[in-house]
Amino acid sequence: MSSRTTFRLMFYINRTRPTKNGECPINMRITINGEALTMFIKRYVNPEIWDGKLGSCRGKSSEAQEVNRYMETFNLTYYGLEIHRLGRVAESHLKVL
Question: Which domain holds residue 54?
Fold first, then answer.
């Protein structure tokens, strides 16, 4: 019997908690073997430039590019480093990173 690990990382904005200037917080959800962990990534974005289907910002504005680059660091960290270092992903390791 093989021990298969499922792993998914997605970003979404919380439209129910906008700031005074109308920006919404960006959250990251990591799902491993059906168990989810949600974290606030300490970034806010204007909901008008957010693409929910892609889970990133649309456009070429400096704000969109900066937010997308910041989110890409999470992708590289969780997908790349953790998988190569351990050969697999465990939820307990994600909380430490």
Answer: 7-88
